[in-house]
Amino acid sequence: MLLASIVHDFNILLTPIVSVLEEMQSRGVGTARQLKKVDAAIYCAFRAKTLGRQLLDFATPPPVRLAAVDVGRLVEQLVAPLASLLSTNIRLDLDIAENLPKAFIDQQLIERALLNLV
Q1: 49 near 67, Cβ under 8 Å?
Q2: Are 118 and 82 in contact (CB under 8 A)?
Q3: How far is 64 from 109, CA to CA, in rounded Å?
Q4: pLDDT tens digit sequence for 38-73
Q5: What are 76-85's pLDDT values in tens digits?
């Protein structure tokens, strides 16, 4: 319970930091070097959030929650967070087939896997 409280507080502290960094990134204000530092800071913040989630999962593995999920839509919703994890010289292009059948998956596990892959 203590670990969950600490991770929750940690994520609350990271949220405004990520918001400000993403705003700076979207405005493109600063030198190329400064923008690379912003990109790196965003990456580190997302990794910190992921690490917190992994700590919770290690301490108390969550139950698998299977549901019918539109994977194409799920991936489209993750484009911005995934792209923000990448270096500015790497472009994320997706080619998602239309009318994919829903997949019976645990959405959070798939999201986490995609974030870890990127």
Answers
A1: no
A2: yes
A3: 8
A4: 888 888 888 888 888 888 877 777 788 899 999 999
A5: 888 888 877 7
